[in-house]
Amino acid sequence: MAESFVLNTGARIPSIGLGTMQIEPGAVDGAIYAAVKVGLALKKLVEDGVVKREDLFITSKLWSGDHAPEDVPEAFGTTLKDLQIDYIDLFLVNSYA
């Protein structure tokens, strides 16, 4: 399996990611907590020069309660603030049918 794929922009996207859709309710809390901790760790790793931000591919998603056009900018800003990063490589709009 390929480690990543090249997008039309030239950016590379990893071929494997971790989702939380079907995780048991109690485990989701732990996954979210771990993700926030990862965000804090990523900031420190970048600041310390261990890894370059451009070498990371960070994905997040728009929560289903924030799909109204007027809610998107604030939700996106909150995600950036929570992860303590300046940009997201892929911001998914997720909808459950």
Structural commentary:
With 97 residues, the protein is of the alpha+beta class. The protein has helices at 25-47, 72-83, and strands spanning 4-6, 12-14, 59-62, 90-93. The strands form two sheets. It has a two-stranded antiparallel ribbon with strand order 1-2. Strands 3-4 form a two-stranded parallel sheet. Strand 1 (4-6) and strand 2 form a beta hairpin. The longest helix is centred in the middle third of the chain and has 23 residues, at 25-47. The chain is globular and about 35 Å long.
Strand and helix layout:
Layout lengths: L3 E3 L5 E3 L10 H23 L11 E4 L9 H12 L6 E4 L4
Give the percentage of residues in beta strands: 5-15%
On the 0 to 100 scale, the average pLDDT is 82
The gross shape turns out to be: globular
Indicate the radius of gyration in whole angstroms.
Answer: 15 Å
Approximate helicity band = 25-40%
Helices and strands, in N-to-C order?
A: EEHEHE
Structural category is alpha+beta
Count of DSSP E strands? 4
